[in-house]
Description:
Largest sheet: none
Order of helices and strands: HHHH
Strand content: under 5%
Structural class: mainly alpha
Radius of gyration: 15 Å
Number of strands: 0
Number of domains: 1
Number of helices: 4
Helix content: over 70%
Distance between the termini: 39 Å
Amino acid sequence: MDYPTTTEAFLSVAGVAVFGALVTQWLKLYLPDWRFTQLLTLAICEVFAVLATLIQADWNPVAGNVWQAVMLGFFGACLAAFGYEGIENIRGRLGAGPRADP
């Protein structure tokens, strides 16, 4: 899979998930104690997915394509968010990372 640098690569669940995972890491770096990081990641993924669809359709999309972009943004952001949370929880159970029990 290519990194999501083109609209075709971005407009897939994997492309949005990679983008969402990177956005999440940037947000966690600059907003470390902010509780709404995952919601902001969802909003950013949604905006970029719809924007990529509009660009790909020369700013004249079919309604079904916009709906598909909204759903891709949602599923990609969910994969990024819950994947990150799952990895952090596993690391915590193994005694590593910020969620480890002392």
